[in-house]
């Protein structure tokens, strides 16, 4: 599973992504973290952030019959993209790595950009998904469903077993906190949470760009 985190990404001053790459390569010397740029121009960037950490652990020494402290080096990575025409930063990774990416971009660019979390409008999202014939609804989680006076329940709904999944999604749109679906001809399952978190199942490299375009299309 892969976390996909969207951020609003806007210029504070005239400063291109090429400037960002040049300033990184000229000024940043850090053995513990860095960025590998795979594609970039003035308006688009695709890159990988890496973070090196030393981790202490205890291993059992059979010969000495005791635990010994050992230090292991671990490298964590997160891929990310910046699309200036959509004013978006997209991070494939956890929030801790995403925050490190944002901080590092701020240091390199001298705060040339404003970055803020993108809030997904779940009502708008459901309306767009239900009108899109290229999307198959799979599951949803509902909260605060009234089944009797003063009695509320939370439940998971398998939309594949329903005759009219879009009608059910519309009916309970105010109660949806998690929605899972997939785009036709793409096997990746997309799960969107009301708090803005997006989780993707295994991504086929051949489908990656189309998947990202489709997600942008329905959440923007």
Model description:
With 220 residues, the protein is of the alpha+beta class. 25% of the residues lie in helices and 46% in strands. The chain has helices spanning 17-27, 95-109, 122-131, 165-171, 208-219; strands spanning 2-11, 33-40, 44-61, 66-83, 88-92, 113-117, 135-148, 151-158, 176-183, 190-193, 198-200. Strands 1, 2, 3, 4, 5, 6, 7, 8, 9, 10 and 11 form an eleven-stranded antiparallel sheet that branches. Strand 10 and strand 11 (198-200) form a beta hairpin. Helix 3 (122-131) runs antiparallel to helix 4. The relative contact order is 0.16. The mean pLDDT is 89.
The average pLDDT score comes to 89
Number of helices: 5
- The dominant shape is globular
Helix-strand pattern: EHEEEEHEHEEHEEEH
Would you count the extended β strands for me? 11
Biggest sheet features: 11 strands, antiparallel
Low-confidence stretches: none
- Binned, the helix content reads 25-40%
Structural class: alpha+beta
Cα-based radius of gyration, to the nearest Å: 22 Å
Oligomer: single chain
What distance lies between the first and last C-alpha atoms, to the nearest angstrom? 23 Å
Percentage of residues in DSSP E strands:
over 45%
């Amino acid at each position: 599973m892969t976390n996909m985190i969207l951020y609003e990404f806007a210029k504070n001053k005239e400063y291109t992504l090429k400037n960002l790459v040049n300033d990184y390569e000229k000024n940043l010397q850090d053995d513990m973290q860095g960025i590998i740029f795979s594609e970039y121009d003035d308006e688009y960037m695709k890159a990988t952030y890496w973070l090196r950490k030393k981790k202490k652990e205890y291993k059992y020494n059979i010969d000495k019959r005791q635990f010994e402290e050992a230090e292991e080096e671990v490298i964590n990575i997160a891929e990310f993209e910046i699309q200036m025409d959509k004013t978006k930063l997209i991070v494939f990774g956890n929030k801790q790595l995403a925050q490190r990416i944002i901080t590092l971009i701020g240091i390199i660019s001298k705060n040339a950009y404003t970055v803020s979390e993108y809030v997904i409008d779940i009502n708008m999202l459901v309306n767009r998904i239900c009108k899109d014939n290229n999307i198959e609804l799979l599951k949803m989680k509902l909260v605060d469903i009234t089944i009797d006076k003063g009695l509320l329940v939370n439940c998971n709904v398998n939309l594949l077993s329903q005759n009219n999944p879009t009608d059910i999604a519309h009916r309970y749109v105010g109660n949806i906190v998690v929605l899972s679906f997939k785009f036709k001809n793409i096997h990746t399952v997309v799960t969107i949470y009301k708090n803005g978190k997006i989780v993707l199942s295994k991504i086929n490299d051949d489908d990656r760009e189309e998947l990202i375009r489709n997600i942008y299309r329905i959440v923007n």
